[in-house]
Every structure is written in C-alpha cells, then in structure tokens.
Design a protein that fits this description.
alpha/beta; nine-stranded mixed β-sheet; 20 helices; EC 3.3.2.9
C-alpha cells in the first residue's frame, strides 16, 4: 500500500502529461489537403479506368412482373414471427404484430398497384452517368419555362441511410417550379449515393465519406456546374459538409437538417459548459433542444446499435437482409418510427402513419430490395468510421461557406449555434422547429422547403451558375 501511495503522484503526472499531449495533438486543426484525387477509380478490376463515357443517359425504373410476383411469394412464405412481449410496443425494436400488418398490406394492396407505384417513382426525370468507374444515378428536375440562366439555381440534394432519393419526392416540385416566394427556380439534382439504390457500389475498399464528396463534386461538374448549393441530412449532411470543407469556394451555400459540430476537444468542453449554465450560452426558448445532455446521449446509445454493426460487420448484417424482404422491412422501418419521434416506441403501431404514408415507406424499402443495395449502402459506415479515415480529421476543418441549419425537435443530435460557429464560421441561418425528426424532407417537406428558400433568398444569386 505504501508503494502504491508513493507511485500515485508519478502515475497521475504521467496521465496528465499524456492527456495534455493528446489534447495538443487534437487541438491542431488539420488543413484541407492540396492533393485531392479527382480521378480515383472505383469500378471493377479489369476495366479501363480511362474508358468512362461522359454521356448522361436517361434511365427508367422498370422491373419484370416476375420479380414482383417473386417478392409477393417471399412475403407470403415468410417466417412465423415471434410474438412481442406482453405490454410492449416498439421498445424492443419493430413490433412483430405491426410488422405483420404492414407485410400484408405490402403483399396485397401495394403490390397489386405496383404499376402505379413504378409510374410514381418515374414521375421525375432519371439519369445515369459514369463517374470514376461507377454508374451514378440521379434525378434532375428543372423548369423548362425559365430560360434566364441567372434565374436557375443549382441545388444538389443528398439523402442518407436508410433513406433514398424517395425522401425528396414531395419537395422536388416545390423547388423546381416557379412560386411566389422566390424569383428563381432550382435545378434540383438528387443523386443516389454510391452503393445506394440505382447507383453502383464500389468494387474495392476505401470509398469513404470524403471520397463520396469527390464523386458528388465530379457529378456536378459533369452537369456543367462548378458552383452550386447543397442540401442534406444524415449521410447527405456529412458528405455535404465535407464538400463545403474540401471545395469551399465552389459551394454557394450549404443547407443542412443535421448540422454536426467540429470534431475537436473544444466541442466537448463547450458542451459540458453549456450543460452547467445553459442560459449563459443558449437562448432560453431553445434550451430544451440541447439540454439536459445526458438523456440525449442515452438516446443516441439506444438508437446506435446499427451503427456499430454496420461500421464493423456490414457484410454480415447485409447477408441476413439481402433477398429477405421481411427482415429488410423490419430493419429499415424501425428507423422511420423511432428516429422520427422517440415517443413512437410507446405506440403499438409505431406511429408510422402519423408522419408518413405506408406507400411512401414501402417505396423506400422497395428501392433497397429491388436494387439489392442494402449491403453496399451499409459499407459506407465501415469505410468512414475506421482509423485511416478518422485520422484525417477533416471534420475539424472550419468552412466559411454560407450555412443554414434547420433544427427539428426530434433530430438524433443537436448542437447550439455557439458551438456550431466554430466549424460553420459563416452560419447565417438557424431555425428551430417544434415538430419533425430525422427524415425532415419526407415528413415535413413544406417546412423544409420554406427553410431552404429563406436561406437562398439571403444570398446574392449573382454568379450562381
């Protein structure tokens, strides 16, 4: 005991020294790399990396009737689901009784109308083009009645997981059409991220969030835009943020409905400070968006199991979900319940139809099923949350691109403006909304639309193309 007592000051000193050294290293803000590789090839081996066509070709969503009938049989012959525990709703995940109701609707009413749903998915103009060896799918909607190029504003809209381009179907027409609240229209470009939906997945490791940012920049260049706006949530917010870091001068503005703070020690320190004296740092009416912090962290942990799994073993969970419509629906739909409002855990029906139509939710599931993209979509987690990618600390680099943050009450994580401004040094708009969750574009398209227009109206549109 005496030896331990004598050694304690030395051990404490070493611990403090190492902690300070780590803080010093993390406090050094990295610089934007000056050797960004724009032509890194992600296509399959054995093909010519310089043979990419520059063509942008129309794409039509179309599946043989046999594919739909095969899905119907799988839904009919699916497993006998284990009954939920007595008195539970969605606390243990997707409630099997509610899932059985949705599966029955999917198998009958929805698939009976598949021609109608397929036509709906084709309501916008779809295209594909080859970028860095990958077929990249995107929707593009632009008014043909506005011919003045200064009145056409390019907007790249980026989805996340487990979403898809389907999230934006209600907001796209609002943006691309003339309306009284704006004297311009948006050229709306909505790509499927690589490995999602109809965009091809990479054949080799390494296609991380920062590499996806380069692919998206190259897509916009292919479409003739050097400078443009970005809107995104979830992965779309992360990729959009990285684009605003790597290509700051080319980003006219970035609008996010999931604004993430700088990856630095100061963020942690400031979060702790604001938890002790929130009124000193946060406007009183918005304190409960951010505090108390511990229940919000507990909420993240409660909802975060999928992330650890997909960041470490994406192919394992992928194998369980591929060609398995029952498991796929259970896995994806649960997120649209509890990420939209955590109170939905207490509801027997999961609260789905309080916020979405079943057709909209099943459209999204169908995209993952028909394209067999669940595994390739999940690999983005493994490629981004690994030591090599995280060591770059690109998220610690501030960006001065004009920024707007739309903060919806039930988003998974929120940061107050005084912390966000360390990273978004030109944060010119920050609005709080009492309703809404993680899938804002799909849940509250009217609200998100108005927030985007308010932001763009603040900015001089000169030179927007």
């Amino acid at each position: 005991m005496g030896l331990l007592a004598r050694a304690a000051p030395l051990v404490l000193g070493i611990f403090i020294a190492l902690t300070y050294k780590l803080y010093e290293e993390l406090s050094v803000v990295p610089r934007v790399p000056n050797n960004i590789e724009f032509y890194e090839y992600w296509g399959p081996a054995g093909t010519d990396p310089y043979a990419d066509s520059l063509d942008v070709v129309p794409f039509n969503i179309s599946y043989p009737r046999a594919v739909i009938e095969s899905l119907r049989r799988k839904l009919h012959d699916g497993p006998n689901l284990t009954a939920p525990l007595e008195g539970t709703a969605f606390q243990y995940g997707t409630n099997s009784r509610r899932l059985e109701e949705i599966l029955e609707y999917w198998r009958t009413d929805y698939l009976d109308r598949w021609d109608e749903r397929e036509a709906y998915l084709n309501k916008f103009q779809h295209f594909k083009t080859k970028i860095q060896g990958l077929d990249i799918h995107f929707i593009r909607e632009k008014s043909d009645r506005v011919t003045n190029p200064k009145r056409v504003v390019p907007l790249l809209m980026l989805h996340g997981w487990p979403g898809s381009v389907r999230e934006f179907y209600d907001i796209i027409p609002m943006l691309s059409n003339r309306t009284s609240d704006k004297d311009y229209v948006f050229d709306v470009i909505v790509p499927s991220l690589p490995g999602y939906g109809w965009s091809q997945g990479t054949a080799r490791p390494g296609l991380s969030e920062s590499k996806v940012a380069v692919v998206m920049k190259n897509l916009m260049a292919r479409l003739g835009y050097k400078r443009f706006y970005i809107q995104g949530g979830d992965w779309g917010a992360i990729v959009g943020n990285l684009m605003a870091i790597l290509f700051e001068k080319d980003i006219l503005g970035i609008h996010l409905n999931m604004c993430m703070a700088s990856e630095s020690p100061s963020t942690i320190v400031k979060m702790m400070l604001s938890s002790f004296a929130p009124t000193a740092f946060i406007e009183k009416q918005f304190i409960d968006f951010y505090q108390p912090i511990w229940p919000k962290i507990a909420q993240l942990i409660l909802e975060g199991g999928y992330m650890h799994l997909q960041a470490t073993k994406p192919d394992t969970i992928g194998a369980a979900l591929e060609a398995n419509p029952v498991g796929l629906a259970a896995y994806i739909l649960e997120k649209f319940s509890t990420w939209t409002d955590p109170a939905n855990r207490e509801l027997q029906d999961g609260g789905f139809e309080k916020h979405f139509s079943l057709d909209a939710l099943l459209d999204n599931v169908m995209i993952y099923y028909l394209t067999n993209s669940i595994t390739t979509s999940q690999r983005l987690y493994a490629e981004s949350f690994n030591s090599a990618e995280m060591a770059k600390r690109l998220g610690s680099i501030p960006t001065n691109a004009p920024t707007a943050c739309a903060k919806f009450r039930h988003e998974l994580m929120q940061y107050p403006d005084w912390i966000l401004k360390d990273h978004f040094t030109n944060l010119i708009q920050s609005n709080h909304y009492e309703e809404g969750g993680h899938f804002a574009a799909m849940q509250l398209p009217d609200v998100l639309y108005k927030d985007i227009v308010q932001f763009v109206n603040r900015i001089d549109l000169t030179g927007s193309t």
